[in-house]
Amino acid sequence: MSSATSVVTLSRAGNVAVLTVNNPPVNTLSIKVREETHAALDEMAGWKDVKAALLICEGRTFFSGADINEFAGPPQEVAYRQMFARLEQLAVPLVAAMHGTVMGGGLEIALAGHYRIAAPGTRFSFPEVTLGIIPGAGGTQRMPRLIGVEKTLDMILNAKPVDAKTAVEWGFVDAIVEGDLKEGALRYAERLIAEGKGPRRTSERAVDPKTCTPEILERMNALAAKLYPNRVAPYTAIKAVRASLDLPLAKGLELETELANESKATPEAKGSIHAFFAERETRKIPDLPPDTEARPIKQAGVVGAGTMGGGIAICFANAGIPVTVLDATDEALKRGMAGVDRTYESMVKRGRITPDEKAQRMSLITPSLGYEDLKSADVIIEAVFEDVKLKQDVFRKLDAVAKPGAVLGTNTSTLDINEIAKATKRPKDVIGLHFFSPANVMPLLEVIRTDDTSPVIVKTVMELAKPLRKTPVLAKVCYGFIGNRMMEGYAREAGRMTLEGATPREVDTALEKFGMAMGMLAVFDMAGVDIGVKVHQANADRYPPDPTYYQSDFALYEAGRLGQKTGKGYYRYEPGDRTRHDDPEALAILKARAEKLGIERRKHTEQEIVERCIYPLMNEGIRILEEGIAIRASDIDVVWTAGYGFPRYRGGPLYYADTIGLKTLLDGMLKYQKIFGPMHWQPAKLLVELAEENMSLADWERARRG
Ligand code: NAI
Predict the structure, then answer these.
(1) 25 prior amide bond cis, ω within 30
(2) Are 201 and 88 in contact (CB under 8 A)?
(3) What DSSP string describes 247-315?
(4) Residues paired with 163 in a beta bridge
């Protein structure tokens, strides 16, 4: 006996009713799944001699969570609650058999079951607070009944996956099933029947008060404060979980629904959800002909085995794509391969990969000194020194050997890719592929199309980003592309304020309190103060005639303070330690430079520091949008959240501009223009227009789409 609709199948194995869900790709608990589950339960109610029920999913995972597309619509908590209550009230024992990545709502449905078993590699998590919300389908009430308040909050606040073994130790999974999950689950259900076990409802359990002492709650509040500055969702989650101690399940669930809906309305939830969807939008390119097909990428090449080339090669090897890495000298090549080996070795040490996986991935990377070895590559990425003549020379050689239709990419950060493309007879195949350091870790990939890049190359690269595990954002050629162009004003002001008397620590602390992953000056120290200085020296004619421009960097550079690598930069560092120490010597250098430039010294409030850095950043982003360098505002947001440590819970710089209001931003730009002059404080034309019409960037984009 079996009946199937489109995503839920009800079948029978002896006395066990089996509900199988197949809602690819990741079995979200969509409205369809919910409706069909209700229908299946209706049908099952008519079946005779059912003594146990099994809930299992096909495909790569058990329910991965709620359908995030529903977040935009009306609240769904009550629908979830009703469905889960129905499962929990079944008169026969219900076994949830899990595999894959069981997150949020996926875990909550299992908690409404009576017994839980899992395949060995299964991982469980509550990621909600990272999206500014809280578990809203029973998680805050049922989980503490199984594992206590402390461990539940540990899961919710850390938002990190818990493995199957830990899940069993903690007690929210009953057993790990080796071998075929469905067979194991049926055996498990039959054993329950044989042993005369009935339903074991989570709702009928009480929370252990020892797991909810004032000390524990204090520790959890401290953890929330440490992990989530500026946010409220973690505290809302603590409140909800805390309530499970005193309230019966039904009342607790009502409170949870109320709190979950409150949390969805907060700016942090809206910002985080914006960031989440923004990342899924970037591959949509409106002007590509709809029939454009990506070319398959089976082999890759990288030219230049330095910091970036090595990291890029690792990305390919991790994706299972064989890659040939070429350098000019045997010495450079050996150094590069040793770097790759070190990176993999540290992954092994941290338990991220096994020694076998390391060996397997290393075997996909072939070092080479001859361009001939690149002739069968489907994509070749150049990452040699930042010198246009050198890069043109490399591209001439690539043109001579690369197979027709191969993607020819350059990782340049500052050079004109049109100029590089001209060195070849196939400029349509040339494209910018701007990885971020370390290339194997940073998720952002800026993709830069020239005037000539063909749609098929754009499409191929945007698709290639998937196996490389990168978030691609498409841009047109301009100096600095999206990310670095916006950084110019942000970094300029951070440095400038240290000449005006703010300490590096004051500047960085204000930016970090705002939510930046790392203050700008600490970033300079990490990347190398010399890197920025050299870019400014090489491109002096592009920058405004401001004698104070990036002078804090120049002053430190001239004093040999290159950042962490020399133990001194804006801060001082002990050998082998990245802790920032204030350094009076750096302050004296900055003060002397300020005196030489005639810059008056004064105190800065945190508000001024943040405004002076973030306003130019947002203003330049608006200019990039207005010039059509980026396709959409949310792409610019992704660049800064994925590549530059802008807080995701603020959505990204342009989303944040709409949040504070374009009028506020314009007024801010004009306020600083009065003090510092128009050279750096010219509001973008689009900003002025929209602020005057009281429109947001989102309104403008909607109107443009028509
Ligand atoms: P690097 O100095 O670490 O490596 C450059 C490598 O290119 C060296 O191994 C060198 O031997 C090799 N090389 C030089 N001439 C060559 C030639 N004719 N043929 C083959 N190999 C040659 O430099 P890094 O930092 O890896 O930068 C490479 C490129 O990536 C530059 O264009 C840079 O602007 C860009 N980039 C760098 C980032 C960073 O954070 N380091 C971030 C994003 C882009």
Answers:
(1) yes
(2) yes
(3) S-HHHHHHHHHHHHHHHHTSHHHHHHHHHHHHHHHTT--TTS-TT--PPP---EEEE--SHHHHHHHHH
(4) 123
Residue-wise DSSP of 593-644: HHHHHTPPP----HHHHHHHHHHHHHHHHHHHHHTTSBS-HHHHHHHHHHHS
Q: Which of 303, 307, 485 to mutate to test the pocket of ligand 1 (most atoms within 8 A of CB)?
A: 307
Q: Give this prediction's pTM.
A: 0.90
Tell me what the pLDDT averaged over the chain comes to: 96
Residue 3 is predicted with a pLDDT of 55
User: Do the beta carbons of residue 596 and residue 643 sit within 8 Å?
Assistant: no
The CA 640 to ligand 1 mean position distance, Å, reads 23
Residue 1: its pLDDT value, please?
Answer: 46
Q: Could you tell me which residues come within 8 angstroms of residue 441 by beta carbon, excluding any fewer than 6 positions away?
A: 311
How far does Cα 484 stand from its chain's mean position? 19
In the block, tokens 């503490």 appear at 144
Q: Is 682:673 a contact under the CB 8 Å cutoff?
A: yes
Q: Tokens 């602390």 — which residue?
A: 509
Q: Is 306 in the pocket of ligand 1 (CB under 6 A)?
A: yes
- CA separation for the pair 22, 9 (Å, rounded): 8
- Condensed to tens digits (0 to 9), the pLDDT of residues 223-246 reads 999 999 999 999 999 999 999 999
Which two tokens mark 228? 């989530």
491: Cβ–Cβ under 8 A, 6 or more apart, which residues? 520, 524, 532, 550
386: annotated active-site residue:
no
Reported as type and span, the H/E element at residue 576 is: none
| Helix (H) or strand (E) segment spanning residue 387 | none
Whether residue 484 has its Cβ less than 6 Å from ligand 1: no
Closest among 593, 611, 629 to 676, alpha carbons compared: 611
